[in-house]
Amino acid sequence: MIAITLLISSCQSPTKDNNMKNDSADIPGRKWWKEAVVYQIYPRSFKDAKGDGVGDLKGIISKLDYIKSLGVSVIWLNPIFSSPNADNGYDISDYRGIMKDFGTMEDFDAMLKGMHERGLKLVLDLVANHSSDEHEWFRQSRSSGTNPYRDYYHWWPAEKGKPPFRPGSFEVDGSGWRFDAATNAYYLHYFSFRQPDLNWENPKLRKEIFDMMNFWFDKGVDGFRMDVIPFIAKDTTFPVITQKDIDEKYNGGWDQYLASGPHLHDYLKEMNKEALSKHDVMSVAEGAGVTAATAHNFVDEDRNELNMLYHFEGVSLGYLPGKFKEMDPKGYSLVEFKKIYSKWDSVFEEKGWGTIYLGNHDQPRMVTRWGNDAPEWRALSSKMLTTFLLTMRATPYYFGGDELGMNNIKFDKIDDYRDIESINMYKQIKNKGGDLNEFLNAQKISARDNSRTPFQWDSSANAGFTTGTPWLKVNPNYKTVNVAAQETDANSCLNYFRKMVKLRKENLILVYGKYALLDRENPNVYAYTRELNGKKLLVILNFTNNPASANTGIDVSKAKVLIDNYADAPVNGQLKPYEAVVYEL
Ligand code: TEU
């Protein structure tokens, strides 16, 4: 009888009695945020209800049923707080106010209520490494050397001479210090001079942040994504760091130096104690500078710090060294890609928890960067990438618009850009007499504005995003790539995404199952298994626009196809271009 049962269970699709959901008792450490699919919304570009060309909260409210229809369970909203928008909201002037462009606190309350009524959780963006230079704290701090808020920021008195170099990654001169005549001192800013770094060594500042977090938690917010949180700790003696130090001690990356200040984990433990632990909420670190060696310090449960983090190792693959975000013309190596994502799976195999993403508001559209956005391959490769994201052992962070297969707009002119990073890097390269055409061509693939173009709702003017003039140009392919066109197409990217979310939700093996990479050196196909409580799935992804096959050592002749981005399954293991298949073995 056991043999027969085993045979039946290995060939049939998961019926009620052997669906993973019923095996949840065998899964230790279950958490809602591990089983979530997080859908990221860039509020500036999602839906404009006011008609001023900028997305707003009322626009999001009008689309909550659409978001619910995706099957996702958590929404991550990029910053919605008061801001002069030097960096599109990542420069906050009032942590408890709603950005005027986006609406009012009443709008926020209505939006949160609407989300919760639909079973959607909301994660906001905690930008606490720096504030806006228009924040009252900074206004006070810069007014005098004895102001009570002086030590909310990092100041270097000019009498000590120029401060040792620190990077200011959005600055034309690349410097992270700005001279401020009012008090004859320099202040630190790791990003733009409009974003002065907060001094976390100051317990008063830390309390301000924790109180603010509890303010939003008390309103019902379900968590925070934490902007460059590893950067908050600084060695405030500001020692001289040479390029040799960076190259030899920090893997050649300033971000790793910036992410390794003293007391960092004391602050995160304090944040957990004073805020996170008081609510049933999730926390995810934007892990700039975090490596596989340091990741556990942030997310192991027994550390009582954060729940999860996202790394940059994957999304940094394929760029030319010494150039600014310029892709190698040969593209990226899938063998390297598989190595990185397999490594990060193993990092969290025993403890902690990972995330998986291929796109967000800082990255280009995933189908352009990792798939193939040529018209004949855009939808197929987008579905293949979606299959990867939703079958890995990590919480997927899925960027709004990728479910449509939205791709890069690829601006020709710097005047079309709105992002401080592209605009200031253009100026920096121009000042150095660099090759501006080379820079602009590279930006067509890697610039952040590529993912920030307005959401494509339908084929009406401005893709139905706004009745005004959009703050950033709409991708001209909105006429055909949009929600309305895909809603009624059973084979659309949109409906494929819905199927994949449903498959993941109904098969916890895709959340918790052991991951094993197969055919490691295959340069075209990514194949892996997921295994849990005696069940096994095989995922095979063709990352090329040619037929390909994988040597998995697994006979799928009797396996059940759970999903395929083509109408018919592979024959004799021959994968069609960009084919994605999930088998139940
Ligand atoms: O990003 C931090 C960060 O690492 C990015 O600056 C990234 O290196 C860059 O975008 C790659 O081109 C966070 C936010 O996600 C980003 O939008 C903000 O601009 C930045 O911090 C400053 O708050």
Plain-language structure description:
- With 585 residues, the chain is of the alpha/beta class.
- Helix content is 30%, strand content 14%.
- The protein has 21 helices and 18 strands.
- It has helices spanning 2-11, 32-35, 43-46, 57-61, 64-70, 105-117, 136-143, 203-218, 243-249, 254-258, 264-274, 296-299, 334-347, 366-369, 378-389, 420-431, 436-446, 449-452, 483-487, 493-506, 509-512, and strands at residues 38-41, 74-77, 81-82, 94-98, 121-126, 155-157, 177-180, 185-188, 223-226, 282-286, 308-310, 355-356, 395-399, 514-518, 525-532, 535-542, 560-564, 580-584.
- The strands form four sheets. It has an eight-stranded parallel β-sheet with strand order 11-10-9-5-2-1-13-12.
- A hairpin with a 4-residue loop joins strand 7 (177-180) and strand 8.
- The longest helix has 16 residues, at 203-218.
- The protein is globular and about 75 Å long.
- The two termini are 20 Å apart.
- 49% of the residues are buried.
- Mean pLDDT is 95; it is low at 1-22.
- 1-O-alpha-D-glucopyranosyl-D-fructose is lined by residues 87, 90, 127, 169, 191, 227-228, 286, 288, 361-362, 421, 448.
